[in-house]
Structure formats: structure tokens, C-alpha cells
Amino acid sequence: MCSISLCMIVKNEESTLGKCLESISSVVDEIIIVDTGSTDHTKKIARSFTSLVYDFHWIYDFSAARNFAFAQATKDYILWFDADDLLLKEDQAKLVSLKKELVDSIDSVTMLYNYAFDEFGNVTTSLRRNRLVKRSKNFQWVGPVHEYLNVSGNIKHSDIVVTHTRTHGHSGRNLAIFENRVTRGETFSPRDLYYYGNELMDNQQYEKASIIYEKFIKEKNGWSEDIISACYRLSGIYMMTDKFDDAFRVAMKSFDYDPPRAELCCRLGSLFLKQQKYDQARFWFKQAIELKKPEDHLGFIQEAYWSWFPHLQLCICYYHLGEFEKSYEHNEQARKHRPSDEHVLHNKKLLEEKHKIEVKI
Predict the structure, then answer these.
(1) Which contacts of 58-65 are long-range, i.e. CB under 8 A and separated by 24 or more positions?
(2) Which secondary structure element, helix H or strand E, spans residue 19, and what is its range?
(3) I want to staple 317 with a disulfide (CB 3.0 to 4.6 A). Which of 93, 163, 282, 349 is the partner?
(4) Ordered alpha helix ranges (H), 48-88
């Protein structure tokens, strides 16, 4: 059986750290907590689980802090978590099994990351991350912000899920780090450009974000998953400002890097739907529902676009095209995923009462 060091960096995480460590402490063999300047009870909570609590002077560099935490590890493999991550009961059991079965030839294990949820508890955003890495390989974190673990070798894709619990907001902290780097005249890597664009967009600086995204896409040097994501996000900016030709151009550019994804098909469908071009919109939403969701790639997956969203939009398209039975059928498909959604229930009532669609038992 392999042994595992859990390595975490934290700051002012008293509201989540206890639950996080309770969910994982019985599964790992060592817990290392690196605090970057907490002023609340974070360190007190950490010390109730481990004596290995270290201070690290914050230098506006997440990779530096994570690499320091990794350097303290002594076990066979290193697992990393953030303070607002959890391992649910079923995934605790899976990790216990993995510890027993993991062979020494494995350099890294990816785990699913359920990152965001809707009001009904459905996963809205998920991705894979390299979570468990062999300590002897000395893999390093790269990048001061939106850091990534630079992993190579023999990688195993597991079905273990890490669950993220934080309600997301945009404090401007990461954007400030990027802006300081711009002020200092630093050269941005392609990955830096992509995440700088994301931070600008998330902080509603859409014009600046569009310039950065266009530069990133044009240079063609980034990871293909980041380019596809940038195409999706930039097309959304253009659609918000009614720049329909640009939105279409950028969305289609994503197909240079991979076969169509449901996210981009739904973006194109939404683009035509906004212009009341229902036939074209229908075409793209139908493409989305016919695609098979990728299992092992490491990019973000917007789960709604692979499940209920294209059906709900097809309900709208078919309604405007006068095909009420098909409209009803797709609304019912959406209702399987969101049985309490007020929009879905409104559509159901409208179609059953006004257009006399017979309910199929």
C-alpha cells in the first residue's frame, strides 16, 4: 500500500478548513498545512488535525507557496487540496482502494473536480486535475496565479471526485496580481494571457478582455483546451454586445482545435436564437444533444450544455417554428434534469393548456 501526504496552502479559511480536513484526514498518512498570513482561527483548526503547520511569507505567488508545501512532504505520493474542497464518503472509499492498488509505475493520478453547482444541486462545471503525484518525481507548480502542476510520465485517470464547496465570487485579487505584472513589464506566457483574459472578463472589463483573448487566440501558442475555452468566452462577449459576425467567427475558430463541443454548439445555437433565426439555432442545439461527452480530457466541461440546456433551447426553437409536439418532447427531456425549474414548468403548462399537447404517461 502506498502512503500519501496531503499538502495544502491556506489563508483565512476558518469557515471551510475543518470540514475539508474531516473529509480526508482518515485516508491520508500525513497532513501538511502552509499558512500564507491568516488572521482568523485557520491555524488553530489546522493544528487540531496535524502538527505540521508552517508559515510562508506571501509573495503574491501561489506556485511558490504550493512548492514550499510539497517540499515538506515525506510520503510516497502527494495529494493537494484547497480548503474549500471535500472528499465525499463514496470517494473516500475509492481513495482507500486506490492506495491499496496503486503501482509504483504510476507518476500521477487525475481526479474529477466538481467545481460548481446550480440551485438544484446539479453539477454545472467539472474538469480533471492531476491530484495525486509521486513525490520522488519532484513535480513543480508553475505560475504565480492560476498555477498548474507540471506533470509528465505515466498518468492514471481515476473516477474519484473532489467536490468544491465555495460560492464563487470575483474579489479582484487575481486580477491585481496580473495588473502588477503588466506594470512591471513582465512577459506573459500564453497561459498567462488566457487567464488574464478570464480575470478581466470575470471582473466585467469586457473590452480589455476581448483584446487579450483575440491576442491569445491569434498567437496559436496556447494549450488547445485553453484556446477552445477562450473562443467560447470571447464569443459570449461579442454576443452580449450584438457583434454577431465576430461571435460566429470566434466560435467556429474553436473547431480548428477539436471536433465540435456541446459548449460551442450551444453558443452558436444561442447566437442564432438571439437573432430569431430559429432554423439555424435548432441545427446547432441538435448537434449538441448528439455529441458524447469526453471522459478524460483535462479542460473545463460545462455540464448543462451536455444535458438539459440544448433541450430547453430546442423547446423554444420548435415552439417558434410551430412544432409544438417536438417543443413539448424537448421540454420533457430538460425536465428530467431540472424537475423544479420554473421555466421548464411554465413551458409544460403552456404547451399542455394552450396547444393541447397530450401528456404521455
Answers:
(1) 58/11, 60/144, 60/145, 60/177, 60/180, 61/144, 61/145, 62/9, 62/141, 62/143, 62/144, 62/145, 62/146, 62/147, 63/140, 63/141, 63/142, 63/143, 63/144, 63/147, 64/144, 65/9, 65/34, 65/36
(2) helix 17-24
(3) 282
(4) 62-71
- Where do we find the cell 425536465? 335
CATH homologous superfamily, domain 173-312: Tetratricopeptide repeat domain (1.25.40.10)
Q: Where in the chain is the domain with CATH 1.25.40.10?
A: 173-312
Fold that domain 4-164 belongs to in CATH: Spore Coat Polysaccharide Biosynthesis Protein SpsA; Chain A (3.90.550)
pLDDT, tens only, 125-150:
999 999 999 999 999 999 999 999 99
Chain-centre distance of CA 161, in angstroms?
13
> What are the phi and psi torsion angles at 307 (to 5°)?
-140, -95
Q: Are strands 30-35 and 53-55 parallel, antiparallel or unpaired?
A: parallel
141 contacts 62 by C-beta, under 8 angstroms: yes
Delimiting residues of CATH 3.90.550.10 domain(s) in the chain: 4-164
**Cβ pair 213, 254 in contact under 8 A:** no
* Number of continuous H segments (helices) and E segments (strands) in the chain: 14, 11
